[in-house]
Specification:
alpha+beta; OB fold (Dihydrolipoamide Acetyltransferase, E2P); five-stranded antiparallel sheet; five-stranded mixed barrel; 6 helices
Length: about 290
């Protein structure tokens, strides 16, 4: 079981170019796997402190040999030391299942594709009989897809002729070149219903969008939030310098809040638009409020 909780990340890289790309990619892949492990542990109802331990690096291709080491389990768990090794094996098998799904799924177009992966993850837990009472549940879909996206993004440092592989006792899966998942794809595929709310709001400006190509960083209810301003007439005046907005000023206008709900009535995402700007409120004086941290 010790070997079964071990896996390898191999980067076959083309000689030449900036060597930092290989090490940056390896570092972010390892970090992404550790976050994925936290999501996968939700299936068996555990919150474990899991570390990926470096066993060694081999020459040639950059090969990192890693094993899952569970540092902590709930105090009430009395199933013995061997249980930690079983969980380590479970995490390796489910990582392999996730990566194989990513490799074999050319495009995410339906929640059914995610359901198939969830059933496989639960099936692995059932096969290993991890819980005495087999009450398993799917992991959080948004977190799972976000984890997969992070793994793919970690390979973006590499050049076209570089490749990344995950190797374990179950087999080998190619990591690079897998499914591409953006935040928009996650929202579009998993959303069942969007509820829209409108209200008048006063938003403090953290960072204006001077180029007109991104969202404004505004402060909403004490928190910094990226918000799109869709009032084109006002934006044109701002771009033409007919209206001045500086960090610390506030904007009063009509805020639209879009809350996306999934098929299980869970919140998939929240985004904001300011579709009408009524006035700009200049920051007054040089008091403490002008220096507050966003």
């Amino acid at each position: 079981m010790e070997e079964e909780s071990q896996f390898e990340i191999i980067i076959d890289f083309e000689k030449g170019g900036n060597p930092n790309r290989v090490f940056k990619s390896m570092t972010e892949i390892i970090d992404s796997f550790q976050t994925l492990d936290s999501t996968l542990s939700e299936v068996v109802g555990l919150k474990v402190e899991n570390s990926l331990i470096l066993e060694g690096i081999e020459k040639g291709s950059l090969k990192t040999i890693i094993r899952n080491l569970l540092q902590d389990l709930p105090d009430e768990d009395l199933r013995g030391a061997n249980f930690k090794r079983i969980i380590g094996y479970y995490l390796v098998r489910t990582k392999y299942a996730v990566l194989r799904w990513s490799e074999e799924t050319p495009k995410l177009v339906s929640p059914d594709q995610v359901s198939a992966l969830e059933r496989e993850l639960i099936g692995i837990a059932e096969e290993l009989e991890i819980n005495q009472i087999p009450a398993y549940r799917p992991p959080d879909r948004v977190k799972l897809l976000t984890n997969i996206s992070s793994i793919q993004k970690a390979t973006n440092y590499l050049s076209e002729n570089d490749s990344v592989y995950f190797v374990c006792k179950e087999g080998t899966s190619k990591v690079s070149g897998g499914i591409e998942i953006s935040d928009k794809i996650v929202e579009d595929v998993l959303t069942k219903e969007v509820l829209v709310g409108r209200s008048t709001a006063i938003l403090k400006v953290k960072k204006p969008d001077y180029l007109g190509t991104s969202k404004w960083a505004l402060k909403l209810e004490g928190h910094a939030v990226d918000i799109s301003i869709t009032d084109q007439d006002w934006l044109q005046k701002f771009q033409n310098k007919e209206v001045s907005v500086q960090p610390g000023d506030s904007i009063r206008g009509t805020l639209v809040r879009f809350v996306s709900y999934g098929h299980n009535s869970d919140v998939i995402g929240i985004r904001y638009e300011l579709d009408s700007v009524d006035e700009v409120i200049e920051a007054q004086g040089f008091g403490q409020s002008n220096f507050e941290t966003f």
